[in-house]
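Researcher: Here's my situation. A collaborator sent me these components and asked whether they could plausibly form a single complex. I don't have experimental data yet, so a predicted model of the whole assembly would be a useful starting point for our discussion.
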Amino acid sequence: MVANITELTTIIAEDRFLDDPPLLKSFAQDASLVAPLRPRYVTRPETVEQVQALVQWAMRTKTPLVPVSSKGPHRYGDTVPSVAEAVIVDLTGMNAIKRIDRRNRIAVIEPGVTYAELIPALAGEGLKISHPLQPRANKSVVASLLERQPTLIPRLNYSLPEPLRNCGVVWGTGEVAFTGEAGNGPLSLDEQWTRGQSQLAAWGPNATDLMRLVTGAQGTMGIVVWASVKLDLLPVVRKVFTIAAADIAQVTDCVYKLTKVGLGDEVFVLNRARLSQMVEAQAGRRAALAAALPEWTLVVGLSGAALLPQQRLAVQEKELRALAQEFSLTVGEGYPGVSRTDLTAMLDGFCRPDERAHQDIFFLSTLDKVAGHVASVQSVALRYGYPVADMEIYVQPQHQGVSHHVEFRLPYDAADARQAAMMEVVYHTASDKLIEEGAYFSRPYGYWSELVYGRDRNSAEILRTVKGILDPENILNPGKLCF
Amino acid sequence: MEISRDAYRAIEDIVGPEFVTDDPALLDSYAFQYLAELIRPEHSHFMPRPWAVVMPRTTKEVQAVTRLANKYKIKIKPISTGWYHWAAPLKDNEPTLQLDLRRMNRILDFDEKNRFAVVEPYVICAQLQAEVMKHGLNINITGAGSSCSIVASACAYFGAGPSSFSMGNNSDNLLGQEWVTPAGEIVRTGSVSSGAGWFCSEGPGPSVRGITRGYLGSRGGLGTYTKCAIKLADWPGPASLEVKGRPPGYRLPVPENFRVYTIGAPDWDSFAECYYGIYDNTLGYIFHRQFNLAGADLATALWLTYIDPTKTLNDVETAAADPEIKAINEKARISFQLILAAHSSDGIELQDKILDEILTATGCYKVERYCDKDMAEFTNMYLQRMGHKHCNFIWAGGYMGSWMQAGKPDWVKTYVPTAIETFKNDQDSGLLVQCGGDALMGCGSTLAGGGYYGFEQFVSYDPADIKSVKACVKHMEDAVVTCREKGIPYGKEYLYLQVAWPDEAVWNALARAPQTFVFDFQRKIKEAFDPNGLGDRNYPWLPEGWGKSAASAQKE
């Protein structure tokens, strides 16, 4: 192993090849229930050529590589090595925003670019990206989209990977190839730009959609070294509205109609615990705020950009109020203790550092099933003594409202062994129950991978075939998913 | 050459004797394919004849026939509604079963709330649209028209149409598919594979759909798609299309919450500016350049004649010489159709105001005659239902759609003059319909949300006149040469021509592609899922190592 490393240091500078124990430890474990395992090295390539050389070296030496694009804390176990002697490929240093094309509303970024870096850069050009609800400031935009994290604006979610369009990938074969439209052109972004080519169309090249094979892959198929992302105009006027409900079923039809007609930018539903967590910075005040909030809140953001933005906003507001009235719902602009400013900050802000440990259970479903999923998880929580009032729930319409990301966040005291043990049982039992009732764990991290691929052997078999083609030595994050 | 009696008997046992045939007359009806004369020896109208035609009813029957084909080493070529010559077997003397999927024509599920339908391959767009409109929903009908299969556009070919600007192309709208691989395995993709229903085509983990649902799909070259789920879009119009008028110029009244316009531009730069204005302002339920398929010199004469019940096509020539019509034609020379829709009167009025501001800013305008009630209603009918596919063939019975390189508007406008000039030069032979060099038409966007489009150049020719056919082929070859010389990626004509090429020539061409990774990947996929080579080159591949050294020196 050491000799092999010596070979690699001819390609990547020695100071970007690290084995400090604290650093290794930081990659050995995350906040998930996935078993910890220390990597052997952490390497920090700076160029595509270095990433490619690293993969080719790993193929020769059968060394497992774990690509990581975000800084921590990591949450789902996908960046924790599943096999010993892995090398972490830390891409956080590849963080150039290579291009922002205002006219065609597309940006090309490296994997280390974070939401905290991209959002203001886009705003400077009058653009925005549809992003997840309060992402970590240091979350890699590329990693977030590759993992199909839900985004806030269902109207713009034309397909689930949106706004991800094209990727440059160092495949597990050691080759570099571009996905989508970019895969038809020269293997150089600069050359493509000189020729007037864009990286807009996600499909292809040819009869294959290579991008689809790196999404949801947890770094098992290839290492993405750049991606193009689709953008929208930055609003010049904006309002955020709340619609309260005692039961999620009360807002279900309203959400269906909003997403059907494409009204609104941000559209999502929170329970009172999640809303209070997001808008109240002071942890000590959250319980009281939550108690004063309605059980459920449908949040709808409206905005105006381009021509006649004020009139655009006014028409949308009128349509929203009429639509809500159809379902006997009232449109508000917050609650006592939740101001308009709080709501806007919630949509635009980054998540606060975790004050409490928590486990997240999330999956896709259809909206008509969500009330049932909520009841199921609550029943599991009650059975094992987990405080149901602490459970934070978030429902995000995706793909223009055809599918819905449903997320249960379960805070607990990880230092308390009894609570930690209970959490593990609740997490596993609830996951089992949910999958039985038709919840679709489309991003099967950790424990879920066995559940999912155990039931779906068809997908597992095909994915193993594809993995065998794209990563014939199984060096890319082995042990994840069904690999 | 004919299919072995053993294989034939076994197929009869699977689907029933009335649903398999090797009657030469019937086989030839499958070999007779649009565009065949452009690439076949002696310009024959016939592609290679299949050895037998099989009409399965169920996925299980497709699977059983496919397994049998593996046993007897017979190729499989599925066809649903079909389009283009490549729907037929590609090579002579290759034993091929043509799977005609017309008996698989059921809408299996319609989920109104969750906005999807599950359909079999012979469900056509018009059939599903009529059903879902009753519930305030609509579907993206592809440019191929409402008589075409939804499964084909969503799973196996290109799924864009006039409404893709707002509704997405059918690749975006695909929510899951059922695929019988050439090896005879039944594969389902996305949430349905996990037993969670047909609402999501991604995952679990990486998306299996990625191995075939690319730019063009596998076009029958890698197994058979037997079902798919498709996302439905909003329909703010009436529950059914109350069609008025007399044939062939049927009209669809424009509801109060709709607007139907034809927008003209003084030049291609203004066209692009107007496009970006519409794109930034997210206007447009339907955005398409439709009427120009008749050619910019003749379009107005044709369409005003077409909608006039007192006239016939014989009157077009007279109309084209009419100074008033000529004047309208000049206003409409660079134009496109835009249909706006909203859920409220405020909403549609606002869209009108925004559009007017865009037009003022860009120097574009509404072409008044095309916006008159009769033409607007005809436009509404044409583009909402896409039922006028016969008009593609209106001039001389044949057309070949060339060019169509898609990209951002600023790039597309740069190749438009070249496409026009090349076509115009070839029209001078007098052997192609002389409708002007600009017969460029196409969707406002092939991608959901806009920002990406390409124009298909409609080359109208007489397929019964061998000189005209040869002139069309010459134009195809000229277009390829022009693209090569000017550094423009090849258009559709290049794909059409390749159908006639021997394998080695296709592989040489693939090996010269700027990136060949995908063709190596597709070879490995083919080896894994089609071990007996039942599929054809519509799912293209490069043999291992093919052209590596030569190609690296000649990358384009």
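Model: Some features of this prediction you could bring to your collaborator: The longest strand of chain A covers residues 403-412. Chain A touches chain B through 92 residues (CB under 8 Å).
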